[in-house]
Write a structure and sequence with these properties.
Elements: H1 9-15, E1 27-29, E2 38-42, E3 45-54, H2 61-74, E4 80-89, H3 95-112, E5 115-123, E6 131-141, E7 156-160, H4 165-174, H5 176-179, H6 185-192, H7 201-210, E8 215-217, H8 222-234, E9 237-241, H9 249-257, E10 271-275, H10 280-289, E11 294-301, E12 307-310, E13 317-319, H11 328-332
Parallel strand pairs: 4-5, 9-12
Antiparallel strand pairs: 1-2, 2-3, 3-6, 4-6, 7-10, 7-11, 8-10, 9-11, 12-13
Helix pairs in contact: 2-3, 2-7, 4-6, 4-9, 7-10
Length: 333
């Protein structure tokens, strides 16, 4: 019996990727561990596409459905321009529920400058909670989209904002009653408001213009999962500095209450950015100008070094393992 959440990397390779045999000459970036987007050759341009479901949140599902794939497009340093939504709703769904979801989606798309260009809406017994699958597209001049394959030993691992943003927001919104005895009203307000911070479109666009060696928005599997996936794409190792990873006190508190690891908690709203040493200061300067928090949390190493983390300076290295089911599923079941 498989666990809830994304398939683990080995299983994904075995039962999904190995079944895809036809290769079109027009496809520039294909499915792979850690790849956020497909890239297709469109002559003088590249079409960048991504698709993802929202299944683990209810209260803000319309908003998150837009953010999740637009974030993927931004991880290529590209402005998303269109999105399609396939909405599957359980029996008993009220007209007001659909109206609220689409109000959220429409408002979020407008804020990001992205048009909802199509999709599908259906009431079905196949689901028992709302499911939205979104597909976003963007366009870049040929050769201008960011590629994680540019990573090399000596590069720095940068991260915007703080770990666990989306997971904290979902748990606080969907389990508010359970948390009222443990958290103050101010803490719950701060945690719920994190769902308004899950976009990394600005992060990706600013970083893309400054120049990167690859980006990855931090979603299921959290910070540790995203770092592991990027090293898989580039065939490198890394040394991750755990004490340098920013995290809000309320995220730590909620994760302690539910006995989960914030470093493996879904973290949409944070962008992982790899930068060559000679470009690090410029990237930080451009991020500060845009009022986007950014931290240096590690360094890329040779593959033989391994994918490793260190809690504090001088402490032993610990191996970072492939991402499994996200910590959020321990809470939502």
């Amino acid at each position: 019996m498989l666990k809830a959440g994304k398939l683990d990397s080995d299983l994904l390779k075995k039962i999904v990727f190995e079944k895809i045999t036809y290769k079109s000459p027009h496809v520039l970036t294909r499915p792979g561990i850690g790849e956020d987007c497909a890239v297709v050759d469109f002559g003088n341009y590249e079409c960048v596409m991504s698709t993802d479901p929202i299944t683990a949140a209810v209260n803000e599902i319309g908003r998150l459905a837009v953010h999740i794939t637009c974030n993927d497009i931004a991880s290529n340093g590209v402005q998303p321009l269109g999105i399609m939504l396939a909405v599957m709703l359980p029996l008993g769904t009220a007209e007001e529920d659909i109206s609220l979801m689409m109000e959220q989606a429409g408002q979020t798309a407008a804020e990001l400058g992205v048009e909802i260009i199509g999709g599908h809406t259906e009431i079905t017994s196949a689901v028992n909670t709302p499911v939205i699958v979104s597909t976003a597209i963007g366009r870049a001049e040929k050769g201008k989209s960011q590629q994680a394959k540019e990573m090399r030993p000596g590069d720095y691992i940068m991260m915007t904002k703080a770990a666990g943003i989306e997971g904290t927001g979902i748990i606080a919104s969907d389990f508010e009653e359970q948390l009222k005895d443990c958290c103050t009203a101010e803490e719950l307000k701060e945690a719920k408001q994190m769902l308004s911070q899950v976009s990394v479109v600005r992060d990706g666009i600013v970083a893309g213009k400054a120049g990167t060696a690859g980006m990855h928005d931090i979603t299921e599997g959290g910070v540790l999962g995203a770092v592991w996936e990027m090293c898989q794409i580039s065939g490198t190792g890394c040394e991750l500095w755990i004490d340098k990873i920013p995290v809000k006190a309320v995220t730590k508190k909620i994760c302690n209450i539910f006995h989960i690891d914030y470093l493996r908690l879904i973290s949409s709203g944070c962008m992982l950015i790899i930068v060559h040493p000679e470009n690090k200061a410029y990237l930080e300067e451009e991020m500060h100008k845009a009022h986007i928090e950014i931290s240096c949390i590690g360094q890329i190493k040779e593959k033989e070094f391994g994918i490793m983390s260190r809690e504090n300076t001088g402490e032993n290295l610990v191996e970072i393992f492939p991402p499994k089911s996200d910590e959020l599923y321990k809470v939502i079941g």
